[in-house]
């Protein structure tokens, strides 16, 4: 099969690899489209310890069933939950498979992902997709599951004000979900003017260019002392600190970004202001299923800001997303045979 293989920092190339061997309980899929995730970009840049040269990355996927499997027809259109867990530990048994000590994700470690023509996955991970759902919308199931999980574990009740730090794919989806849930006022912070313009189009009431003004001060001025809820979707120390500073007293902050391993935060002030801190990783199966339903409902549209390239142009696609994303929110590589 043809696959896009990571061979070194800022370098992927097409190689021909053996077709995957279908294990017991698995089903062979023909990949039609695969999205480039922020974690894939970290791997491409050589910044991910769990993505080494020789790996096929990719986990945001639209595919078709290539072989028979119980309950599934050949040619049926699907996506799949790429997070695998042991299914027997305390976390898995409590429905928190993302916290399994043995979790794995396709496209990491030595588990080849979906920048390829074929992939074999456990049947239990499959979710059906309607034929009417365009690929650039279907590809958002996995990243939207990340946002649905974050909102579920960190929000007790709908906030009046929300600030989103980062106007990339996860930040845009956080904006969209907050708007769908009726949040009255939403602010988005970034340093990319084109992405901030997209945020305005998607419904942001206020956008702040952090390269031109002090973002926490601007958020606090706009919200009258800070926002009730802050989503940090970048992961750099500077944005983590800014997110804390932008939260109102008694506010909630959820951290999603994974860029920096360690960051200092003003813990004494946070404790005195009772700012509640949440961290959120990936999703549980219930969040992935909820994302499938939400994407199928087609209540928002990010297609105008989605670039589509064939798998053979993967190097070009990765370079664009790494160094010049502009208004592009999602890069989708197509691997149709």
Q: What can you see in these coordinates?
A:
With 337 residues, the protein is an alpha/beta fold. It folds into two domains: 2-140 and 302-334, Quinone Oxidoreductase, Chain A, domain 1; 144-279, Rossmann fold. Helix content is 29%, strand content 26%. The chain has eleven helices and 17 strands. It has helices at 38-44, 90-93, 135-138, 141-154, 169-180, 193-201, 215-223, 237-246, 267-272, 285-297, 314-323; strands spanning 2-8, 11-16, 26-35, 60-65, 77-80, 83-84, 104-105, 118-122, 126-128, 161-165, 185-190, 206-209, 227-232, 247-255, 276-279, 306-310, 330-334. The strands form four sheets. Strands 3, 4, 5, 8, 9, 16 and 17 form a seven-stranded mixed beta sheet that branches. β10, α5 and β11 form a beta-alpha-beta unit. The longest helix is centred in the middle third of the chain and has 14 residues, at 141-154. The N and C termini lie close together (10 Å). The mean pLDDT is 96.
Kindly list the characteristics that best describe this protein.
Rossmann fold, globular, 17 strands, 2 domains, 337 residues, 6-stranded parallel beta sheet, Quinone Oxidoreductase, Chain A, domain 1, alpha/beta, single chain, 7-stranded mixed beta sheet
Strand content: 25-35%
The helix content, as a percent range, equals 25-40%
CATH class of the largest domain: Alpha Beta
- Separate helix tally: 11
How would you characterize the largest beta sheet?
A: 7 strands, mixed
CATH superfamily of the largest domain: Medium-chain alcohol dehydrogenases, catalytic domain
> Do you know the CATH architecture of the largest domain?
Alpha-Beta Complex
Distance between the termini: 10 Å
- Listing every helix as H and every strand as E from the N terminus to the C terminus, the arrangement reads EEEHEEEHEEEHHEHEHEHEHEHEHEHE
Computed structural class: alpha/beta
Q: Give the mean pLDDT.
A: 96
**Oligomer, anyone?**
single chain
Number of strands: 17
* Shape field: globular
Q: What's the CATH topology name of the largest domain?
A: Quinone Oxidoreductase, Chain A, domain 1
**Number of structural domains:** 2
Low-confidence runs of at least 5 consecutive residues: none
Query: Radius of gyration over alpha carbons?
Result: 20 Å
